Amino acid sequence: MSEYLRLNRAQWDERAPAHAASPDYAVERFVGEPGYLSEVVRFDVPRLGDLGGVRAVHLQCHIGTDTISLHRLGAQVTGLDFSAASLAQARALAERTGAPVDFVEADVYDAAKVLDAGTFDLVYTGIGALCWLPDIQRWAGVVAELLRPGGRLFIREGHPMLWSVDETRGDGVLALEYAYFEREEPLVWDDATTYVETEARFEHNVTHSWNHGLGEIVSALLGYNLEILMLQEHDSAPWDALPGHTVKDEHGEHRLTDRPWRLPMTYTLQARKR
Q1: Is there a contact between 91 and 80 (Cβ–Cβ < 8 Å)?
Q2: What is the mean pLDDT of residues 37-47?
Q3: Nearest to 4, CA basis, from 132, 109, 164
Q4: Cα–Cα distance measured from residue 114 to residue 103, given in angstroms and rounded to the nearest whole number
Q5: CB-based contacts of 116, cutoff 8 Å, min separation 6
């Protein structure tokens, strides 16, 4: 196993139970409200369109809240993730909500080997997924293999400009500190926290991540015969990506408190396999 996979998997395995227990993932609302959708999916309902009967795969699905939300919009969904602990939480949530969602344990680069390649109407990827992958070209190839001709890719992701920002300076300046473009060497982090409200303490804290420029992502998809249908940049994110610099709105989206038009925080991209 690659070192980055070993380190990153240990981090996600350890944090999965804390994420499922955190109010930020709203697991109990999923159980108690049959129509409840995750904030991430709810944001993009107008862009997703009618998912009735759509055969979908959610890559890097984590604990399955977005996956089950896609099911509630009518899709026949399979979730895939490399973290066994995350999938244990996802399967428990599916059982508690009565959602007939399949979950498969595999690295995203192996998705076309363990799933029925060339049969999916929709490949969905959500927030905070692509940064864990070292090679965006290889990822685009997997997406192309999974989709049937005419099938659609849907992404809402953290913007590569956001991933480039260091918000920890003492003077309050948001500085462009980290790589915008994909580089062979990873960004190595040692962070004992996580992105949700929790009192849990963690031991597996070292991770490897990579940024991918927006042009690199688009070019990778075009190179595998996918045509771009939509590319929208948003000034908000569904989590507090820059603590101390953002304000949260009534929909759970965080924007810069000061002049939010300065920084794209997320984007929505759709592409279709020719």
Answers
A1: no
A2: 96
A3: 132
A4: 11
A5: none
Evaluate whether 43 touches 66 at the Cβ level (below 8 Å): no
Could you tell me the maximum CA-CA distance found in the chain, to the nearest angstrom? 52
Residue 1 above 90 pLDDT?
no
Q: What is the pLDDT of residues 147-204, one digit of tens each?
A: 999 999 999 999 999 999 999 988 989 999 999 999 999 999 999 999 999 999 999 9
From CA 68, how far away is CA 188, in angstroms rounded? Answer: 32
- Distance CA(252)–CA(144), nearest Å, equals 32
Mean pLDDT on 44-54:
97
Determine how many CB atoms are found less than 10 A away from the CB of residue 261. 8
- Contacts with 234 (C-beta within 8 Å, 6 or more apart), sequence order: 159, 264, 265, 266, 267, 268
Six-digit token string for 28: 């109990």
Query: Is the pLDDT confidence value at 241 over 90?
Result: yes
- Checking 109-114 for CB contacts under 8 A at 24+ apart, the result is 109/133, 109/138, 109/139, 109/142, 111/57, 111/59, 111/80, 111/142, 111/145, 111/146, 112/142, 112/145, 112/146, 114/80
Contact predicate 55/80, CB 8 Å: no
Percent over 70 (pLDDT), the chain:
100
Structure tokens at 80: 């895939």
Buried b (16+ CB within 10 A) or exposed e, 60-76: bbbbbbbbbbbbbbebb
